[in-house]
Amino acid sequence: MPSKDWTVLDFEKPIAELDEQIAQIKRLTQEQGIDRSEEIAALERDRDRAIEEIFSNLTPWDRVLLARHPKRPYTLDYVRIIFDDYVELHGDRLYGDDHAMVGGIARLGDRHVVFVGQQKGRDLKERQYRNFGMAKPDGYRKALRLMKLAEKFKRPVITFVDTPAADCSVDAEARGISEAIARNMMEMSVLETPIISVILGEGGSGGAIGIAVADRVIMMENAIYSVIPPEGCAAILWRDPSKYKEMAAALRITSADALELGVVDEVIKEPLGGAHRNPEAAALSVKAAIVKHLETLEKIPVQKLVDARYKKFRSMGIFEDTSKKKPQKKVPAEQQEQEEQGEA
Amino acid sequence: MSAAAWFKSRVGADRRLVRQSVDALPDGLWTKCPKCSEILFNKELEKNLRVCSKCGYHYRLSAWERIQITADEGTFKEIETGLVTLNPLNFPDYEAKIERDKAKTGLNDGMVVGLAEIGGHPVGLGVTDWFMGGSMGSVYGEKVARLFELATKKKLPVVMFTMSGGARMQEGILSLMQMAKTAAAVARHSKAGLPYIVVLTDPTTAGVHASFASLGDFIFAEPGALIGFAGARVAAQAGLIDRPANFQTAEFQLEHGMIDRILPRREIKPTIIKVLDFCMGKEVSSDAE
Ligand SMILES: [Zn+2]
């Protein structure tokens, strides 16, 4: 029976059906006390095979849907599992407290860290409370305030990115959303403490990079990282909003693309069927990656760390620098095909 | 290409094309102001720095027109002319659009950077043209970063005129990273104690507004310029409600404390010189003049 559950994506329906069958048999087992474990195991194997098959053929648009999945674990879900303890801290000390951006201090094993990240809401009420994960200037300024605390007390910063975009409403504009994002990138580029950013779900444009100038940027397998949502881009560039699937492919927004383009350092494999099928396992993978990178970063003298961070972002972009070649005037452009990365 | 050579190249077959890149003036004696419909003589308009004498409408300027009215005569030397745009995502039709705008503007990219003097002060100067909507891709971001690095090395102020629709969609996530790259380059220049002056011109939105354009020690804007985070078309798509009439204009930004002053075009250069005098010491300009 096809599921009508709105939290199930179309391509997940065969999986949901098998899940439902398994759940039914388990219920019967409990009610009737008959051992049907072999049947259950067989169905679970079928289901896992179905997942593997479906997930080996995902389109970029399918990844968009997974990144926005209504059951996808959000920042605070990760925070609760990754950290042994945490205290959320509020407010930007300038205007207010933005519920779309959370942050605080936390314990990660022996370490003390600062975390910040966008927070989405689960149900309609919470979604509105969290402004759909779209932070205003106050959110970015809260994040910066907490990052400065980290710098002052020599604690590393972990940022969690999950936002469709920064808020662009009238009051966000009035309080300087552009300035807030720009300032964060500038300050993060010289912050004298290690920074790790994790792209959890939607890495939406300026809203994402406003907290993602880091020594290590890691990205969940089914997350997306994009300069503009594919729907908006199709509407603007192709004047055809219906071509969002083609645009999702053209924009190269998947984790594999980001890795290949040199924008992220590592992609974290998600549990079978996506992070929402096993948030605990997903978070523990993120935790392991964070600890691994911190171990490396903590050994680097802070000035070297900041210089390396500069070089990292400085080298992003792909173009050709003809002045670096031996002078060879009047070579037709078609013959100059060699791609060069920007110099570090 | 020098400014003189560029101006020469405008006279001829490609003159009409070149002018389409900014607010076009038809080849004739007069033009009609797009805002107030006043009939303006082209010669008078040029003399008035392409500002309507009746309503104050500021026509968009090309990069070289901006250089001509900003840099001391004959002082601008363009740098980083060898950077060439590629198509890193193999984005459909990207090369064709680049070629089209190269032909239209005579430029390689919307960002033109160089060394110049303003009121006798040596500066790093960045100006922008309406190339691919003034959008920031890899070449644009690299030029900005290199300008700031050179200025840091030579201990020079940076003066930046922005005109941009935002990050270049055809280079996807790489364009987004130019925001971080340029902001980081500004940070190092700023830490070296050097001044950075921004003049926001129509329009300055999205990825450029949310990066180096908002990080000046001094931020000025031309009257009526569209300035904001959401690009014009994105804002229209979002269908924002309760928009004040002046939403996303220079006047709105001034009202909300985001810019220092609105400067009519004629006041821009004198004000930049005053700021440079303040930051760098006045004797420099009095020596040179
Ligand atoms: Zn007029």
Question: How would you portray this structure in words?
Answer:
The complex is a heterodimer of chains A (344) and B (289). Chain A is of the alpha/beta class and 344 residues long. In chain A, strands 1, 2, 3, 4, 5, 6, 7 and 8 form an eight-stranded mixed sheet that branches. Chain A starts with 12 loop residues before the first helix and ends with a strand. In chain B, strands 3, 5, 6, 7, 8, 9, 10 and 11 form an eight-stranded mixed sheet that branches. A two-stranded antiparallel ribbon of chain B has the order 1-2. With 289 residues, chain B is α/β, with parallel strands linked by helices. Chains A and B meet through α7, α8, α9, α10 and α14 of A and β4, α6, α7, α8 and α9 of B. Bound molecules: zinc ion (ZN).
What would you say about this model in short?
The complex is a heterodimer of chains A (344) and B (289). With 344 residues, chain A is α/β, with parallel strands linked by helices.
Quickly count the domains of chain A: 2
The coarse overall form of chain A would be: globular
Strand content of chain B: 15-25%
- Please identify which CATH superfamily of chain B we are dealing with: 2-enoyl-CoA Hydratase, Chain A, domain 1
Unreliably modeled segments of chain A: 327-344
CATH topology name of chain B: 2-enoyl-CoA Hydratase, Chain A, domain 1
Structural class of chain B: alpha/beta
CATH class of chain B: Alpha Beta
Number of strands of chain A: 10
| Coarse morphology of chain B | globular
Please tell me the overall pLDDT of chain A.
93
- Measured on Cα atoms, how large is the radius of gyration of chain B? 18 Å
The CATH H-level superfamily of the largest domain in chain A is 2-enoyl-CoA Hydratase, Chain A, domain 1
Oligomeric category: heterodimer
The CATH topology annotation of the largest domain in chain A reads as 2-enoyl-CoA Hydratase, Chain A, domain 1
> What pair of chains forms the biggest interface?
A-B, 61 and 66 residues
Helix content of chain A: 40-55%
